[in-house]
User: Which sequence fits this backbone?
């Protein structure tokens, strides 16, 4: 290889091809995905997150929750995602079309959060979890404020510590709103029809 | 490292002393920080309560900081030094544009510091290997242009028409990094692509930080050091171009293999798996070409580092291929196992080969030999032990975690309890690595102090810079 | 490994940078020298590379879903599936009924005596398809007799064009629902039948009167 320009062209081709295939290719193929309009519900899915949940997503991102939690359900038969009741169905590209900063995550030190809004019922559940932590999750006590207790503790208080009540800060509130809003809609007919053939075939074999 | 090895000091070596020493000093400094953060992060995984009251050092932050410091602090600074020095050496003329390079180094490290503060303050971008916020990266890109200029000038102005594999790999690293980096800034930070296409772009970028930048830099050093230190030309060298192009054309597609089972169309991960398999051809040629450098325990200290690095590189390639296929990927996806694989690539093959290069060229650049062979041996042993302990225990932790995740009845508390002993071992491994880094940092400072003395008072350790 | 020439740098302790460049350049150029010992290797490597490409190509063909954007399970290849969404007109009609008609005709379909006529057992609902379609499409005004009682104080607004702008399939669905709910047992009304009537009455914009409709066969 004595030819400098040729080397340069080769580098450019190698780089450009992989970019065109993986970065540009996926963007072009998936960029035109539209929400699925459900006639019965008279609504389009997935729905956009309300503003407070979008603000909560920024907190999720800032704290780096994605370092331990994923937000994708793998198909039944690949891993135990559906057996663990993380979702009724696998996640599809369409579920994420409204997201401008994806939080898929790379590690499952903690459970998947795709449908956590269906498992944690109230903001109180989220606050308790955030304040106390678990054996595997740190307590995020800095998301809570301490207030002198005058009479009855506020309904949102997670604890009362010698004359002070611990109440969620604004960050905890929006984070809870975000988490409670995490729910995937019912199956999309097209994706469901295309991706269920194997399961049927396997059942037929049994 | 011996006196004999450093007596071949030429003018090419010493002219670049200022910027190269600056790069190495920053690289080693950042490596210490990265080592500290790695220990903190692993402790946080093992005991979640550790530092949990500290809002700016959640595990998410620690992990983002460690990754950023390692890649943009240690790996980048060391890669620039290695690539520029190699191109200068093989170009055959003194390096030009060194003043500009110094300014670039200062701004690179300044930008990195700003980025780290931003991550601490909660402004992380949450993109793997691109954690610093969008406003920091353009500064780094401009600084990079200044740093790379001497390397590019040395390539275009080379005295010999003939080129060597080291030059292809070094030029590839220097050219491909800014392309990759700027494309990622546009597609992920400035105008992020929406939806899951972003995951594909992220995977493509994160993999190619390794495949198109750090790996070529390390291989450039290995292709130079193995024949230099063994005194033999490389075996089956006529296949080297095939190995080079196989890495670039197939390796660049391997990133998306991690997305198997996820919300991307099946072809995206499948393409990554196929590329990971075909790139084995590249590893085969590296093994053929550099097999003289694979033998441990004989000859020069640099060669020992290169040997460990190459073994880690080949092992990593085979592991990547095996664990990309669904049957195995299912068992380790989302666990510590891929973390161990990444460690093997970054702290194993990359760091070891580049340390081999640093031990080779730092004395040539400074003009005097390393003061203490004992410290080199100590560093080598600590770093090797640290690497083996960390990678093996993380892989074991990941395997047990993967088994636990596959069993729907196993709670996360039970999974964590099973991984804790291994994580404890990983903490020890990270500690050994950090100790090794401190040793080489002290040694490097001693080298510079001695060189400084030599410049002023002609210490007997100093060698004639003109001796050739 | 052989070739013990005195200038051969393989035998010297160290290589200078020029020697390094030249010796390797020579190694690429002088393949003829070592033909005997290296003959098999290029073939073997070519074999390995072709093997990898062949395996990779086959794998890609089998497990990429042929680059289909809707295939997420890599074991599936593109195949014909019926992806048109078939709604049960009764379920859909009920949704529609509950979104609009329920206000006047009530959840029971009994209406409000004296104001809104009942649908349950109504001779209009269970009568000819054409009359019911026309009523829903354009609405109804003036006095009307249902099950022996006279209504007409409040006109029925049009649900089709000029009113709610419901499409033919929606009108068909809601009629199908109404004709089998509340104890009614009449047959379903198809979208095609609605479209047919719709085409006939495009010129008519006003609400119908009971007399106009009764003139129809």
Assistant:
């Amino acid at each position: 290889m004595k030819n400098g320009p040729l080397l340069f062209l080769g580098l450019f081709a190698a780089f450009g091809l992989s970019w065109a295939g993986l970065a540009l290719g996926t963007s072009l193929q998936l960029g035109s995905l539209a929400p699925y309009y459900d006639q019965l519900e008279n609504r389009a899915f997935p729905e956009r997150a309300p503003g407070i949940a979008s603000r909560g997503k920024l907190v999720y991102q800032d704290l780096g929750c994605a370092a331990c939690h994923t937000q994708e359900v793998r198909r039944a038969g690949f891993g135990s995602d559906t057996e663990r009741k993380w979702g009724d169905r696998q996640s599809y590209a369409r579920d994420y079309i409204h997201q401008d900063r994806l939080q898929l995550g790379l590690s499952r030190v903690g459970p998947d959060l795709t449908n956590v809004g269906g498992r944690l019922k109230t903001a109180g559940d989220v606050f308790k979890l955030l304040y106390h932590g678990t054996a595997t999750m740190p307590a995020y006590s800095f998301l809570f404020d301490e207030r002198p207790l005058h009479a009855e503790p506020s309904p949102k208080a997670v604890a009362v510590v010698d004359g002070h009540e611990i109440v969620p800060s604004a960050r905890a509130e929006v984070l809870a709103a975000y988490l409670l809003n995490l729910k995937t809609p019912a199956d999309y007919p097209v994706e469901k029809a295309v991706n269920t053939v194997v399961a049927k075939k396997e059942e037929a074999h049994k | 490292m011996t006196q004999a090895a450093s007596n071949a000091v030429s003018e090419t070596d010493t002219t670049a002393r200022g910027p190269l020493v600056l790069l190495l000093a920053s690289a080693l400094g950042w490596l210490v920080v990265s080592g500290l953060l790695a220990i903190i992060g692993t402790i946080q995984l093992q005991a979640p309560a550790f530092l949990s009251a500290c809002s700016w050092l959640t595990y998410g932050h620690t992990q983002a900081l460690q990754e950023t410091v390692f890649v943009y602090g240690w790996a980048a600074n060391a890669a620039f030094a290695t690539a520029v020095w190699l191109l200068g050496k093989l170009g055959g003329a003194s390096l030009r544009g060194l003043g500009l390079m110094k300014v670039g180094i200062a701004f690179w490290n300044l930008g990195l510091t700003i980025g780290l503060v931003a991550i601490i303050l909660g402004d992380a971008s949450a993109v793997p290997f691109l954690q610093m916020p969008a406003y920091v990266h353009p500064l780094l890109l401009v600084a990079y242009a200044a740093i790379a200029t001497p390397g590019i000038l040395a390539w275009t102005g080379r005295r010999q028409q003939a080129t060597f594999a080291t030059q292809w790999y070094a030029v590839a690293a220097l050219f491909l990094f800014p392309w990759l980096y700027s494309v990622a800034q546009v597609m992920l930070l400035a105008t992020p692509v929406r939806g899951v296409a972003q995951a594909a772009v992220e995977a493509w970028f994160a993999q190619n930080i390794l495949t198109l930048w750090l790996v070529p830099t390390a291989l450039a050093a290995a292709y130079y050091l193995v024949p230099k230190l063994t005194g033999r030309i490389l075996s089956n060298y006529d296949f080297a171009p095939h190995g080079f192009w196989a890495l670039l054309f197939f390796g660049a597609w391997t990133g998306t293999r991690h997305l198997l089972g996820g919300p991307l169309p099946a072809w995206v991960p499948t393409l990554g798996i196929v590329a990971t398999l075909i790139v084995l051809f590249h590893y085969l040629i590296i093994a053929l070409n550099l097999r003289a450098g694979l033998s441990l325990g004989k000859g020069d200290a640099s060669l020992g580092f290169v040997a460990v690095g190459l073994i880690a590189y080949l092992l990593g390639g085979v592991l990547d291929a095996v664990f990309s296929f669904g049957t195995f990927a299912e068992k380790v996806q989302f666990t510590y196992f891929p973390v161990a694989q990444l460690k093997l690539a970054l702290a194993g093959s990359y760091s070891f080969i580049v340390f081999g290069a640093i031990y080779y060229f730092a004395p040539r650049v400074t003009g005097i030999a390393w003061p203490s062979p004992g410290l080199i041996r100590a560093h080598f042993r600590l770093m090797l032990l640290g690497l083996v302990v960390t990678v093996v225990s993380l892989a074991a932790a990941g395997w047990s975690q993967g088994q636990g995740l596959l069993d729907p009845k196993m709670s996360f508390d039970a999974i964590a309890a099973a991984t804790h002993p291994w994580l404890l071992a990983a903490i020890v491994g990270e500690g050994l690595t950090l100790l090794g880094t401190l040793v080489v940092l002290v040694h490097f400072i001693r080298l510079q102090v001695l060189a400084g003395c030599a410049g002023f008072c002609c210490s007997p350790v100093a060698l004639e810079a003109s001796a050739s | 490994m052989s070739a013990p020439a005195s200038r051969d740098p393989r035998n010297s302790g160290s290589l200078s940078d020029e020697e390094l460049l030249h010796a390797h350049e020579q190694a690429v150029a002088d393949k003829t020298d070592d033909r005997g010992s290296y003959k098999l290797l290029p073939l073997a490597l070519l074999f390995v590379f072709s093997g990898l490409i062949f395996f990779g190509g086959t794998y890609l063909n089998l497990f990429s879903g042929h680059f289909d954007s809707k295939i997420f399970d890599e074991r599936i290849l593109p195949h014909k599936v019926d992806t048109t969404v078939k709604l049960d007109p009764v379920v859909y009609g009920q949704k529609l009924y509950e979104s609009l008609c329920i206000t006047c005709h009530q959840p029971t379909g009994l209406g409000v005596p004296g104001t809104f006529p009942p649908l349950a057992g109504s001779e209009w609902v269970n009568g000819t398809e054409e009359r019911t379609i026309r009523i829903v499409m354009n609405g109804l005004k003036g006095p009307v007799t249902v099950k022996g009682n006279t209504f007409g104080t409040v006109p029925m607004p049009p649900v089709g064009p000029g009113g709610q702008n419901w499409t033919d399939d929606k009108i068909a669905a809601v009629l199908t629902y109404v004709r089998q709910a509340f104890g009614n047992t009449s047959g379903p009304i198809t979208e095609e039948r609605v479209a047919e009537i719709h085409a006939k009455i495009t010129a008519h914009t006003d609400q119908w009167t009971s007399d106009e409709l009764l003139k129809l066969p």
Notes: Chain B is about 75% helix and 0% strand. Chain B has a mean pLDDT of 91. Chain B touches chain A through 83 residues (CB under 8 Å).
